[in-house]
Amino acid sequence: MISFDLKLKRYDFSLDVSGEFDDGITAIFGPSGAGKSTLLNCIAGSLRPDAGRIELDGGVVFSSVDAVWTAPDKRRIGIVYQDGALFPHLDVQRNIEFGYRLIPQAIRRFDPLDLAEFLGLSALLARKPGELSGGERQRVAIARALAISPGLLLLDEPLASLDAARRGSILNYLRRVHAEFKIPMIYVSHSITEVVSIASKAMLLRDGSVVGFDRPSALLLRAAALGDVVATDPAAEYTRAERFENILDGVIGESTGHSTMVRIGDLEISTRRQNRNPGEKIVVSLGASQIILASSMPQNLSARNIVKGTVAQVWSSDGLVFTQVDAGPKIIVEITENAMTELGVTVGNDVFLVFKSSSVDVFDA
Amino acid sequence: MTSVCDQRQFQRLIDLRCVQIAFLLAIAIFGVSCGGDGDNPDNFDNRAPLIFAAASLANVLGEAASLYETETGNRVDFNFGGSITLANQIALFGAPADGVFFVGERPAEVFAEAGLVPAPGYPNTFSNSLVVIGPNGAARLSSLEHIASVKARFAIADPLLAPAGVYARQALESAGIWDEISSRAILMLDVRAAMAAVESGNVQFGIVYKTDAATSDNISVLYEIEDGYSPIGYMAIPLKGASNEDGAAKFLQYIVSEPATLTLFERAGFTIAGVPGRPGPNR
Amino acid sequence: MNTDISIVALSLQTAIVATAVTLPLGMFFAWLLVRKEFRGKFALDVLVSLPLALPPVVIGYMLLWAVGNNAWLGQLSLSWFGSTIAFTWFAAALAAAVVSLPLVVRSFAAALAGVDPKLETAARGLGAGPARTFLTVTLPLAYRGVIAGVLLGFVRALSEFGATIVVAGNIPGRTQTVPSAIFTRISTGDTEAAWRLVLVSVVIGIAALAVHNWLLRRSTAGQPRSGRSVGRSNW
Question: Where are the beta strands (DSSP E) in B94-149?
Fold first, then answer.
């Protein structure tokens, strides 16, 4: 449980936020300059707010009223940075063990080598950060942060410097970390895709203030419900700006000819031929704008994938409409407002999702 | 892949070794030069007395100190330079001299102005005279005024820094040519530097002590200046309150009384036993 | 009596002491200038760099004024240690330290600036205190530049003349360093003896600079280049 209420003023920026996060994965998102990293740094202890209070797990780490201040090295918060911030002069094992060596025996929950194995790093222990790929570096960063048995994990745009192929895989690791070790996580990002995909709650910041705090999809929905105000609602700006990617877990199925089947829950979709073995766990990425919506079963199409589902939510923003369709996994589709009006589709209706197998990207899990 | 890693580790190992070696070397040098063979810069020891002396005494005092060491086993350290420069260092800035062996009147004045009372010593021990020198083989001068007609540059000690310069200027003023040729004067830090300037061939004339000229094979004496300047007097005095006042006193006493050293001075060209009638500095 | 070796030894000794003093002091100032923001930072920068802009004799005279026998510090030394500061080897070391400090600070600052402050923040977040972070993260990443700075400072200390001769004099066996000895030998026309020491100086200078440059070239390898290198560390 994390609660905070703080004010911070710098040259041309001021932060005034308060909130309470549970033990799940909470996202803080907003545009650059909104104050996300500033807030994160305040919680971490590398920045000192001008006024307010921060409580972590029942312990007060900052209080301007009572003059309490816990230094960053005493807060036991694991931090994963955007570029990993690994120590270049130490190998992977030493990096992971850096903080581990400094915590008292009694507090140690995790063994660095076990963490390395959990994150698939066992073969890389002797390598230096300069010899690792981006995804590998982030995994080391996660292991390093976990090694101090933190009471809280902070992630500052952890996927921002990775290419698309890696993001899904790391997101998966993070979900598994949370499920396995049950450590509360605060996830800072400007990407809606990531926020929707990983967080159970999201705090939307803009210009140093909180403008929303809810489930990610609800935040986006709220934008739709505001009607005319939609265009200026910050949540709406996001959906407009991002090319939304659906990120789903799947398993490789049979391969025939030029295509491979992928199983996502009860759904089977076709993708380009993969050089992978059946049963292999993978991550699938499908762009929201690459899916065609049909109100009735289409015929004679070249597209390999036609999926039936029910419309669960609809929200619109500046001429675009986003629909969340329940087809087993929940898939978000982006179409124009005009198209939506013509189709006459609303919540509860059955629809068909059409997309080519080439629109389905497969990544390592 | 592994060879790259090994290479990097190897490199770091070398760097580390280099740093360690350099560090040990530094300590070693420091230790050795501290322990040293007597050139001990440590301030707290019972060490050799430090005598500040006129540059013209360099050779003869060195020989005298050797005699002293042979006989008593005690070493003496010297700092040679222009007597006025050195006197100022002592009087104004507290240079740690234990005794002085200066020439001229100005150093005594400097001490008096600073309120320094020298211990009883030997205010008028030796005397000297001035000569004009030139490069080897140069023609002798018929008179001092000849320097003016040649229109060449000449080297003397800076009158502000060494009495040799004061005496030289007095001599030239007495000959009536100072105003004319002063612009051609090259002023050096002390009388030996003036002589070196002539030795190097960069200056045609120099005015130095007779005793200086005697030490060099690279110059010729062109003229002996008999008068026109104050009598040249040397004072050998320990400094009251200095850390090794006793050591200095013992050495200075040895020089002025021991026949062997007096002979050294005579052979070098100094005249002995002061100058009759000249009052010395305060006792 | 005053052999070449003893002069070189005295010079080396003075320079080593001067470097031993400027190393921690220089690192402290460099760290302040690179990592901290505070009022008066500009003044500190100017003050530390001042010896670079002043003629060495001026520095020597200012030191003389500060530690001479008639000054408070000189009197203090007299009563505590029974000896003066001016015209002793201590003054020679002091002069060498003062003139080499700006070079050391600048070199160290450049070395520290090459370390990403983010790494220091990360180390703190992992539980390392300020000292441990400096020793285990900052220094290992900056150490080549630090060594280069030490070398530069050492060479500068070794070659100091103007300040030394004013505040420490040119006393053979006590404060006569290599440069001072060369000057004396030139002045008295002992050219052969002067050349011997000149040779020693040149050799030391070339060796030190060669190592210095080699170190600097190697110090930028191995670190990932990131955007902000000079900046406040969020400590």
Answer: 99-103, 126-127, 130-135
Q: Are residues B69 and B134 in the same domain?
A: no
Residues of B with CB under 8 A from a CB of C: 8, 11, 15, 19, 26, 29-30, 32-34, 36-37, 39, 41, 43-44, 50, 55, 58, 62, 77-79, 81, 89, 92-96, 188-190, 192-193, 195-197, 199-200, 218, 243
Chain A CB within 8 Å of residue C174 CB: no
Tokens coding B30: 């420091």
CB contacts, 8 Å: C217 with chain B: none
Q: What does the alpha-carbon distance between residue B263 and residue C208 come to, in Å, rounded to a whole number? A: 50
Average pLDDT rounded to a whole number, residues C216-232: 54
Mutate to test the interface with B, among A125, A131, A132 (most CBs of B within 10 A): A131
Chain B contact set for C188 (CB, 8 A)? 55, 58, 192-193, 196
Question: In whole angstroms, how far apart are CA A80 and each of A138, A142, C149?
Answer: 8, 6, 34
For the segment C60-86, the average pLDDT, to the nearest whole number, is 80
CATH code of the domain covering residue B32: 3.40.190.10
Q: What is the pLDDT of residues A300-342, one digit of tens each?
A: 988 889 999 999 888 776 677 888 899 988 888 888 888 888 8
What are the chain A neighbours of C129 within 8 Å (beta carbons)? 71, 73
Element (H, E) at A353: strand A350-355
**How would CATH label the architecture of A2-241?**
3-Layer(aba) Sandwich (3.40)
Chains in contact with B, where contact means 3 or more Cβ–Cβ distances below 8 Å, are: A, C
Tokens standing for A42?
């305040």
Q: Give the per-residue pLDDT at C203.
A: 93
CB contact under 8 A, B95 and C169: yes
C149 touches chain B (CB under 8 A): no
CB atoms closer than 10 angstroms to residue A357: 18
Domains identified in chain C and CATH numbers: 2-221 (1.10.3720.10)
Q: Which of C37, C126, C138 to mutate to test the interface with A (most CBs of A within 10 A)?
A: C126
- Count of Cβ atoms closer than 10 Å to residue A365 Cβ: 17
Q: Does A110 touch chain C (CB under 8 A)?
A: no
What's the pLDDT score for residue C220?
A: 56
Q: What domain range is B36 assigned to?
A: 4-127+233-272
Nearest to A336 by CA among A271, A288, A299: A288
CA B213 to chain CA centroid, Å, is 15
Question: Residue B43's pLDDT is what?
Answer: 42
> CA-to-CA distance for C166 and C64, rounded, in angstroms?
7
Structure tokens belonging to residue A230: 């939609």
Q: What angle do CA A179, A181, A182 make, to 5 degrees?
A: 65
Residue numbers of chain B with a pLDDT score lower than 50: 1-5, 36-45, 274-283
- Under CATH, which architecture does the A245-364 domain have? Beta Barrel (2.40)
pLDDT digits (tens, 9 = 90+) for B80-132: 999 999 999 998 888 889 999 999 999 999 998 888 877 777 877 889 999 99
Confidence of residue C219 (pLDDT cuts 50, 70, 90): low
Element (H, E) at A170: helix A164-181
